[in-house]
Amino acid sequence: MNPDSFFKDFVEENKGIIYKICRVYANDREEMQDFVQEVTIQLWKSSQNFENRSKLSTWVYRVTLNVCLTLSRKNKRRVDTVGLLSTDYIDDTDHTEQEQISALYTGIRKLNDADKAIILLYLEDKSYQEIADILGITVSNVGVKITRVKSKLNDIING
Amino acid sequence: MAELDLKELWKKGESSLADSKGFDLDKSVKSKSKDILQKIKFILTIEFWLNNVITTSLGVFYYFQFGAFWGIFTWVFFLIYFFYYTFLIKSINAFDYAGEVQSSLQKIYNYLRFYVLHYKAVIWITFMILPYAMAAYGFYLGFTDQVPPEWVESNGPKFEFTKSQAYIALGIILVLPFLIALGFNSLVSMIYGRKIKKLKSIINGLG
């Protein structure tokens, strides 16, 4: 099983999406690497059946989110006590901004898994239609859920 | 924090992708999957090959040792299990994280639950109910003096139990099949139980 060059280039291009999602669902750095590894395996497996019925980016989000949602189950008890990953800090930003970004990540991690998926896609600037396609829900439901999760996230961040 | 700030902050957070440095795609794709379905598939594949080797060999042995009926009977069993394992393994292979994950997992969970249930039923029937039935039949023949003449004429060892030996034999006949069946039942639970429970908790979590 050797990934061909197209798949390699494809994963390289979408590495950012994969890491961002895994970072939100994983409890620590080691677990994040495990998630990324599993997502890559499943993307490779799923790529054999990919039939261009959806956009490539939709497919990547869908596979990555579904893998993270299923893997994060096994460590469910640890989620509420999660700390920050060292990767949440950014060297070239000022201290206040670092704190805000950390607060954002901490807030997202405190949401339940389904809400995390919604807010992730919202923050990624996905259209309601795309979010509906990725999560398998109706477009009208997307709007309602985003409003609810955003308010929940603001409550968590602002204490 | 205002709504716009959330997206702005998220974008700023994106630039810190230091964690993706040193990512080895080849190694990642070839590594062992932690997916629960892959673990179940691995066990099913081992059982599939054990069935292929052991049951077909037994079929040949029975054919020559006990006659065509028992040989063909064993091969029929082999074929049933061959297709059953193939079906289960194919169902797991067909699972795709880009598809309807919850309903596909639910389907696989139902198949596996039925499989384990059937496995346990076969264990209890083979290792407890059948031995009890055979022992009961033997007692019945003995008490009613209907022992087939070929058994009496056979050259095997012949002896009569004392009363205490008879009690011990009865105890063994009653307890041993139960313990063997219980042992195999626990083995199946150990192999599949936790994995199937984990699968169920994943499905519940996705709901």
Short structural description:
The complex is a heterodimer of chains A (159) and B (207). Chain A contains seven helices and no strands.
Account of the 3D structure:
Chain A is an all-alpha fold. Chain A is built from seven helices and no strands. In chain A, helix 4 (95-110) crosses helix 7 (139-157), helix 5 packs across helix 7 and helix 6 (128-135) crosses helix 7. Chain A is globular and about 50 Å long. Chain B is an all-alpha fold. Chain B contains seven helices and no strands. Chain B has helices at 3-14, 25-30, 36-66, 68-94, 101-143, 149-153, 163-206. In chain B, helix 3 (36-66) runs antiparallel to helix 7 (163-206) and helix 5 runs antiparallel to helix 7 (163-206). Classes of the chains: A mainly alpha (159), B mainly alpha (207).
What order do the helices and strands come in, and which of them pair?
The complex is a heterodimer of chains A (159) and B (207).
Chain A: H1 5-25, H2 29-47, H3 56-71, H4 95-110, H5 113-123, H6 128-135, H7 139-157
Chain B: H1 3-14, H2 25-30, H3 36-66, H4 68-94, H5 101-143, H6 149-153, H7 163-206
Helix pairs in contact in B: 3-4, 3-7, 5-7
